Amino acid sequence: MKKDNLSGQYQVNDQIRAREVRIVGEGFEPKVVSLREALRIADDMELDLVMISPNAVPPVCRIVDYSKFLYQLKKKQKEAKAKQVKIDVKEIRFGPQTDDHDYNFKLKHAKGFLQDGDKVKAYVFFRGRSILFKDQGEKILARFVKDLEDYGKQEQAPVLEGKRMTIFISPKKGVQKKAEAPKQENSNSEEK
Question: What's this model's pTM, rounded to 2 decimal places?
Answer without folding.
Answer: 0.49
